[in-house]
Records
---
Amino acid sequence: MPRFSIIVPSHGVTGRLPEALDSVLSQSFGDFELIPVHDTPTDAPAAEVTAGHQARDSRVTPVHSPPSAGLAAARRTGLHTATGTYVLFLDGDDTLAPGALATLDARLRETDDPDVLHFEHERVPWWEGPATNPAALLVPKTPSGAFHPEEVPRLTGVQLPAWSAAYRRAFLAEHELTFNDGDFTDVSFGGLTMLAATRVAVLRTVLVRHLVRRQGSRMALPEAEHLELLDQVDLLLTRAAELCTPARRTGPLFEQLFALVLKTAARPRRLGSRRRDFFRRASILYRRHRPAGYRAPGGSVGVQHRLLAAGSYPAFQALRGANRAVSGSLARLPRPRGLRTRLRYARALRRPLDENLAVYCAYWGRGYACSPAAIHAKAAELAPHIRSVFLVEPEAVASVPEGVEYAVIGSHRAWELLARATYLVNNANFAEGVVKRPGSVHVQTQHGTPLKKMGVDQSTYPVVAAATGSFTKLLGRVDRWDYNLSSNRHSTEVWERAFPGSYEQLEYGYPRNDVYLTATADDVARIRRELGVPEGRTAVLYAPTHRDHHTGFETGLDLDAFCRAAGDDVVVLLRAHYFYDEGRALGDGRVIDVTGHRSSEDVCLAADALITDYSSIMFDYANLDRPIVVFADDWEVYRETRGVYFDLLAAPPGPVARSAEELARVFADGSYAGPASTAARARFRSRFCQFDDGRAAERVVRRVLLGEPPEAIPPLTPLAERVPAPAAAPLVRS
């Protein structure tokens, strides 16, 4: 049997799960089994992560536990699978410190394999600030070897998380020790193991690094079942009485448990309307389990003990009222400019939400575009009772299609609509001053699959961070999101890390990409005529991305020279990043500037092949299953200044050209569309086109606007069964 079984529940932490698993697999001590526990065999995002690790290391044994069963059930499932001498638990966003298992094994052998070995851990802030080591204070001075818990009565186990100890598996099985259901399962598990243990040891070394989530511990949130804490307290103190535990041990156990209870009782926002019920039941348990001769602490804490024993909630509330800290208080939101507008917005916020009003916006008001436009169009078809209004900047009004209701951003009418709308859909973010009203639903559609670093992940790249502005304000906007769309598992993981929040991920695909599966040959021909693509020519879309270290648009490529070298039948559709949408005249007639065209989807449909550098357009274009060439002449500079999530050159969607000469050659000799290009594109599509099957907008409308349950949402069409819109020109070159 292996020395260690390491159990890692993964629900809700997919974005950090690879780091957790890698921290185990990279240990110098290799005698272990790694047991990730995820939601279902096939549906959970974590399944792909664990499957990849299992494929490369036979020590990985994934098991499945439904998310509805909670953390306790996931750990129980892992325990049933474990075969190691010792069991360790990691959360999915914890990591083992380098050398942790070797250090732990040495200490276990030194102490002759105790029942439980407690070690220290670090709590690492999710954003900034020093790491803390709370276990250093909780693990008191102990004997150098193994000892009986009676020798150190203040080491009760209830103050330490399950992932701050190693447990001998035979000991757990002998005493039938496992995790009880509920949010506070660590409290009873830690206490019960210490009540049953006869040999305990301590290791004063940090072995686990715990990432503190931006949302904080679930136990501190209002929706947690805080009355379950009292269930765990009752269970643990009842068990201590059954074992006739001496008073020198039950005193510290009682005090530590009720310190948790009083901490919860003093935060009424956690308890809501149940705070009196919580206090009343806690008072009953306090009197029932108070050890004989127990003396409460001194000072204000002792007063709280006496008030709890007396069941006097009003007095307790008055005592704590002055010191109550309201955690997570919101900074004052910037208000709309102009006194009249502020007054109108404030007045509108006092009116009830309009349950049949949806407000859309794309690219900060640049026009009717992207996924918000696709959802808007589908809502008109499936939810015609919803009034849909698009917000645009004044200069974009002329581009709004006929029949689409719109409002100008910043106008009185726009602010009134934002105040009253139940549904708000955006591919960027609404203005700072927009208030997230109870009952309103914000949908963040995103506008691309991330290759470059996004959100708070940009903070370590100075050029990008300076352009991003306040990350605090960014996260304030993220806190408004109720739903966030994803087109592949890679995006799901990145959004979780880059935009930490409490929103729900909808792995529905990007609505803007639906057209790549629904457009016809006639649509493609029409768009090419509108753009001026000569009949019979091969249209190559050149779409370079924005570079944060440049001050303006640079093509990065001599397009005239490329056309001459690539072949007489090639024309280039130039689409600069939307930051540079002013018109320009380039080339000798074989270069068509489509930067100002409203729809990037139309431009992609018109193109027979794509050249890009690091733009996210490659992920969308891959849905068409047409050739893609990566022009990576400055990859190293871009990677260092902007930051990327994976090595594009190691897993490209097609040929990679590192110079203009190489780029022209792959078109001149036809290799841009050859077998190697097709194979690379197939691998790329399987990874990044997972959820884009042409029905993303329908899924969003049904789930969000029509309120249909998840099980009623149309299932994904397998990638092999999807039929992309046909290209106009043949790909075989002479």
---
Amino acid sequence: MGGDRKGRAGRAPVRATAYAVCGAVLLAGCASMPDSGDLRGVESTPRQDSQVRVFAMPPREGALPSEIVQGFLEALTSDDPTYATARQYLTKQASANWRPERSTTVLADGPGTEADREADREDGDDYSFTLTGTRVATLDEQSYTPSPGSYRQPVHLKRDRKTGQWRIDSPPPGVVMGQSDFQRNYVAVDKYYFASNGGQESGMPVAVADPVFVRERVNPMTQVVRSVLAGPTKWLRPVVRSSFPTGTALANGTTTLTPDDQNKLTVPLNANAARVGRGKCEEMAAQLLFTLQRLTPAVDEVELTSGNRHLCSLSEDRADAIAVRGSQKHPEYLYFLDGGGRLVRLASGTSGVKPDPVPGPLGEGAVQLGAVAVSRDEHEAAGVAADGGSLYVASLVSASSLDGSLVTSKGKTRQERLTTPSWDARGDLWVADRNPSGGGLFVLPDGSGKPLRVAVPGLDGTIRDVRVAADGVRIALVVEQGGKQSLVIGRIERTDTKDGGQPEVSVLELRSAGPELEEITAVSWAGDSRLVVVAREQGGVQQMRYVQVDGSTPEGPAPAALTGVKEIAAAEDDRVPLVAHSVDGIVRLPSGGQWEKVVKEGSAPVYPG
């Protein structure tokens, strides 16, 4: 049990006359092992209940090189906190130099093994294998990165002349395992920091999710707290800050953090945090509280201490007053366009009632609209004309007239003009011009004035759709190149100019959020680090599914199937129903239910954002 390894037919099999190694076993049991035959693939361990622990078996006396490699690979999939058993398969020097915590390589079917029969002999003192497979992703700094490709990694063994025992003296760097073992061993967690480029108009800091993976059955709560204290991942680091003082760590001797029976977690910190003020301390507590709320067991309150001193406490019901988080914002209305291209709205979560036109010119039909976005405070709306050539902004809370177009596209067709716009928490408005001649990505600070062209180094193709995260530091782009589309996430950076004018804005380090997608019809943020997409995979049919911003596969089911989807809308608050524009009109998906009709005629449904 425990491995994803599959034999490679036609590649010189590794002969083994006996198997005393059990590899990773559940609890105290051990599956029987054959005592002859080729080194064969082992079926992956299925996802187990969170309380079931998987342990590894040490190498047996006189184990053959093939058994040593197999046992080592099995031990990598166990729940051993320090990989102590896996190290028993290594020479002393190799064990001292091996750093399993630095990286994890995820393979589609687990590592296969090829023996180098020509160069090595089992009756000698050296033996070599090559680990092979199809690489899916790598985990570095606990951060998941899709990296499809082939995997070949040599592994060398030496026989100790004194003991006669085989041991690995050149192991693979880090940990390697199959995808199903990875899903069993690791759990995704959003840790939280604050946007360093300012907050929303209220002046409160904006929380930004930084998705990481931790080993699910190896004290995950303590792992996550240590990860938060260590700081953001490399990709997010340039645009976020932590409220924890530099050098803050858990107090010496702290090995396990567990909430009490009231779901309160006390976190003892070292002396670096001893002098923080109350405001800063509550921001620190908010970072941990946001991070730990979805772990099991859940945490409802965080208390921070240093030495014998109580620093502060923060409960879930007070966290909203400390920082803004996208998934905390419950939209007041659902917005969409009626049959005449006017902007209308319904109270969020309702159906079967007649929608009302929004106040102001966009609800009065001053211009026929084809796409729309509503600011996150629901005070303004941006609309793109039905022909896609002009972008307008108008108030939703006071009488106003419709000023001239803020952005104009000269694309030849509707498909070569403006995308649906998108607002961030700062009140900035984003839109892309798909015109092959002179198009690009633009942002309008505060949703007004002259648009700023956004630099997107590394962009390969034309931006077809834009969705900015509530935090204002991450943006999802649908990019088309050569007839194929891809979903990428970029990091938004703002640099002040020397003359004090408008900052220069860039979207940097684009990374894939759906490497298997090639035709993307619609996309919307559906959580702090999750999107919902309507897309087709290579060789497949259109379907609706969730994707994580880091490109990993989210747990849980996809939304209920829906045919003929043209547009999709979700809120960061996952308690709010999904809404779609399909062949049946505007429909919504209540939690745990089936799609139901909201109105027959309508298009372009959106929640604020």
---
Amino acid sequence: MKKLKKALYILALLFPVTLFAQKEIVIEPANITMEVGQKKQITAYVMENGKKLKDPINLLSRARRSLSIDSTMMAHAIQPGTYDIVAVADGVRKNFQIKVNYPAIASIKIDDIPQKIYAGTSIALKYHVIDKSGATRDNVDVQFSSMYGNIAEVDDFGMVNTLIPGKATITVKAENITNTITVNVVSNPIVKIQLEAEMNTARTGDVFHFKAKALDKNGKIVEDAPIFYSFSGVSDNTSQSASGLIKNDGRFVADEAGRYTVTASCGVASASKTLKITPREVTRKIEMVGQGSVNDKHTSDFWVWEGIDGRDYAVTGTWGADGTAYFWDVTDPSNISKIDSVQVDARTVNDVKISEDGKICVISREGASDRKNGLVIIDVSNPRDVEIISRFDENMTGGVHNVFISGDYLYALSGGQKYYIIDIKDPKNPRAVSKFELDTPGHSIHDVWVEDGIAYSSNWADGIQLVDVGNGIAGGSPENPKQFASYAYPNKANHASFPFRSPSTGKFYVIGGDEIFPYGLNTGKGGVNMAGGYLHVVDFTDLENPQEVARFEVPYAGSHNYWIEGETLYVAFYNGGVRVVDLSGELMGDLRKQGREIAWIIPNDANGYTANAPFTWGAQLHKGHVFFSDWNSGLWSAKLEPEKPKNTPIKVK
């Protein structure tokens, strides 16, 4: 070891530069801190052997919707936080961070303070901490205190517990900002609670609607009584805890079969009801039927349709390859056969759609050699001999990731920021007639789906956007799209949105799906991937007050594209395969825990582009078969066994 160290030392003396010198990227200033809304010029250059080189450098923000950096190295701080930046030059890269400070607190708003609170009851303070940028903050330390604690006291989480009649003051503090309110505690007239429900037995996943009435000593209803709901339970499965979800409007749903007790209380008065919950029992078998193999490149989205000749066909795109789209005959789902293809100037044909009359196909283009990305419109009247009719590139330089056809119009994403609405009455001469784009900082979009004259777009951090493009609900049209409702969920990963009007309840839901790759995405041949994220069920029945009410999540897998037929959901969960889900009845809580998963199937292909690495992209029901595409293995078909008749007696021989 001593001889080796001596040899290295001599080499270092003889060849100090050639042995140890290397390129490095220098960032100035070294520590970058910004304020929201600020722009700051960043200087970056390459050093080698003590000399400053003129090598070009690219700076890439890993959170461009929160901190963007343009081609001149000008950073724009959009949202507070600490963000990772990558500097890349020839043969060298450097990772560094930019911190965007949170603005100081400007005010604390306390809403909906009751004029009176009955002694012995509790209320949760509804407060919002607002910073100087106008944003609502939930990451600050909030402190609560009360004066006259013998009348009312407040805990560390803003729950006010009242004790005796009188007036007490409650103070809320964040940083150096405070807000003080007075609560008026009065004598509690409530002596009895009446509790009613429409049923006392149900299946897991069925939603109960409890109604509680608070009565005074004369039997009169106390209308403003603050009713608190809770539940306890014992599961039929001795190794499983009873679980469920209860809301303070009296809605309750159970996840596990067993016995549950729901309690409504107001101060010392309470009432309870016991429920018997049975298993949902909706599971069915699903079997693989056929495959159209693609094993030399990644497969992207697909569409299945009935051709004008009465036979059934499919089109699939390709990802990160050579711009090919394949056409298939799927009339016999057990014998899927490739019948034609087109190749366009693109690396990725991410999305494919077919017109309602089965005559027109549109495919998206990304990564064109001339940077003129856009759409290609194809005549598929004869799917065995398809013909390109036209292409549309105007305003599409940044690439088209997703498209949709509705009637005589195409809806095409442009550069990940907006969608254009394109008139294709004459498919040889498509023309843009309007566009829809948000004006929020760092806005972006991933998908658009159109149904009944409403465009549902998925706008990542800005969430689900509902736009009237001919429905009439907001006076919109394809030439004049008008947004009328939206909902953004906290993880800011809204990737797809699909409307669902429940036939059994009349409720109007939109199901929003995440797309998250917590471990990154390995796009090369042989790459194995895992995704994250889940489906968010948002109740849009009240368009002015949409509420997230349920979820469907598969552990260690992530949602992608999906399809709803009747009250059944068919959803691709990437490495978790295709999942079939029961959407019947009112939706609330954790749908998978409730036993609403009907079936699941995972495509394994030893001859796939990456062998035995299922990564399903989307699912579609067509004439009783479940078709789905897989990133590593092509197009598949499966068959779900018919639904079991209800209450069929079992015959014993």
---
Amino acid sequence: MTMPEQGPVEPEPDRLADAVTRLTAELAALRREAARRHLLDLAGGVLVAQHSLTPGEAADHLVRLAGTMDVSPEDLAADIVNGATGPPGTAGVPSPERDDGPCPADDAAGPGHGEVGNADRRTRWAEAGAEAATQLGGTVDEITATLLNGGIRPLGARALWLFRRTETDCLQLMGQAGVNPLEASHWRWVPPTGGSTLHRVLGEGTPLWLPDGTAPAEALPGPAPDSARAVLPLRQRGVVTGVALVDWPGPAALDEPVRRALTGLAAPAARILDAGAPGTPEPGVLAPLLDLLTHPAMVLRADTESGTLHVEHLNRPALDSVRHVHGPAGRQLAQVLPAMHADLVRLAATARESAAPQRAARVPAEHRVGGPDPLHDVRVLPVGPDRTVVLWHGATDPGLSLSRVLGRLENLAAFEDDLITGQSRWSEQAYRIFGLEPGTSPVPLRRLAPHLHREDTGKLDELLTVLTRRREGGHTVVRAVREDGGLRHLRIAAEPLLTGGVLSGITGVYQDVSAQHHTEIALSATFDRLTAAQTQAALRQQLVLQLQQAIVPEVPELQRLPGLQVAARYRPAAEEYRVGGDWYDVLPLPDGRVLVVTGDIAGHGIDSVTGMVALRNALRGLAFTGHTPGRLMAWLNEVTLHTHGRPTATAVCGLYDPSDRSLRWASAGHLPPVLLRDGAAGLLEPPRSILLGAVPAVTYEETVTRLEPGDTLMLYTDGLVESRRTGIDQGLDRLRRAVERLRPGGLDEQADALLAAVTGDTDDDTSLVVFRVS
């Protein structure tokens, strides 16, 4: 059996767009990784040469040394390369024998510190990024943009221009970044006549620094005559092959760090010139012309052998419409506009073959929900054997689509009254609106009152007064009574017709807006219900906030209890609707001990707050039985199981005995307390236990912690340490380090400082209780 031949199955437009976006992001990531590897390889080569290491030993040494100096391996690699090339202020690299100990102060003050070191690092990063873009086949403009954004724009510069020396000593603009295409087209070629500044630098081979711009009679690329500029010769194998020009938005102090950074970027800029093949076809005068248009436009060039369409130029509106693609100029049309590719190929081929413009109302003709925005009112013009210009709009032109829209409006009818002859004309839809048989004599507007509701005849009279006396257009909404007894809501919009200053007629439209009227009534009723529901929700939210703030005040005063000083803080969630169930309690008991508790109900809203109130009050009552924390937590677990809504919660409960300074405590799945003693902070390992409300009949183990005078203990909830980007272990370690950095002082000051230094990013409530043993 022979199967019929089928053409290639093209991906769906939205999938093509997604694939292009994903591949573009992957290419950018590959370039960043290639730049990083290039920089690390350079640094590894320096270590191999300086310390006679193998490549593997050099890589390991670099990683260990970066950890010792508390910098990233990439930044250290930049410093090593800077040290090897000898820019001012650089230092040598410690040998492997010093890896096992901290670096001396002399080494720490090397090139990785201060603004000079940061500038040197940016230079190396920019050079590595340009090398990576070159290796991965980036266009000259893409590589130039990498160099500008990575190493030159941080210096305050606006743009980078790269000129290549031709065989006739002309300077050809090979790459630019930070300038618009129209500005670049003015400097596409710089002839050797006239002794220009660019050719002077080309001949002398020394950089030229112009912090205050150029003389009035001397023209150079840049936004204004007084804008600062730097012109640097570019050398390849000892020969000046071109010049680079950097311009600023205005005057700038080109101090020594800036000059050193730009001089260091001259080498990769020179290699960029080799990436652009001379003789690349340009769109000529088309580019400046299209750049003057306010709607999107682009030039397409067909490959002479394969016929594949490439995007040769896009004006600014077109660039904005394809901003999801990095560097669209020079790419294949299928990569830039995948969903429109097939239709544009067909239109371009027809335009070239017929030598006539082609039009399409929309490309693609069928727009899929969730797909990319279509191109509206597309025009394709042939401009040569292999080039076409594509013009389009980002949205449909109302003027071009008005006729199509009017034809689809079933509830819209036109009328015209000739006041000279007394004749009236209706469109076919008018008869359906008034419930009349087609062919019936049309009713002039001035005689329409018998067909309207009695209460609306006044509105018709007012409209006729505006039209006939004031000679102005107007509109009104009335109720039309049909012969079958039906009632329709009718909008009338009309304009007077004047001939020689005399009112000769009236023209306008009737629109049946009954469905809209009923919809407005329904929406009004729905709005009233929504307003009432919103008011109830606001009252409910206010009640929850007041309830929570009454139970857990935000800034309680410092408490002095037997043998303890206590400071507590409560920080509500960043979003008011996320009222949570955090709580804490500090309660002196009759036997001299002190109950300390911190807990957290799962969830947010009024259910979590009411559950928190139930557990907090229950534990307060149970504490007066004199039982141990483990027994109190077991009882509290049963209370949780019988609480409305079956909440779950974590908590830590302790009883502090001032007689022997001991803390007996138990934990129900809560985070470990932090103990600060003699300037060192550590996490207290809690007994293994399950959270409250999970299963019945749970036995909670206890542990006893002996405290010493001056010890500070901190209980908290997860809002203090949780993060969306890191795990809970990193958050706990961050908290421990912050506690160690607390300055000696009062307990209130330390509690406030800790809340300011450590914060999670989950918009959750935070409770903090700080105890200090007297």
